[in-house]
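Appendix B. One record, verbatim.
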Amino acid sequence: MPYSSSMLRTASRLNGRVSGTRPRSSEDASSASVFAHLLLIRLIGMSVHATFRAINMV
C-alpha cells in the first residue's frame, strides 16, 4: 500500500467529521470560516490586481 499511516489517519478523521460520528465542535466551524475568509481575500486580491493591470494598460 502506498499510503502512509498519517494519510490514513487524516482520512479516517475526515470521514468521522463528514459522517457526523464526532459532534460538530467550534474548532470545525472556525476552521471553515477561516477557509472562507482566505478564499474571499484571494478573490478580492485577484480583482484588485486585474483592476491595476487594466489601469496600467491605459
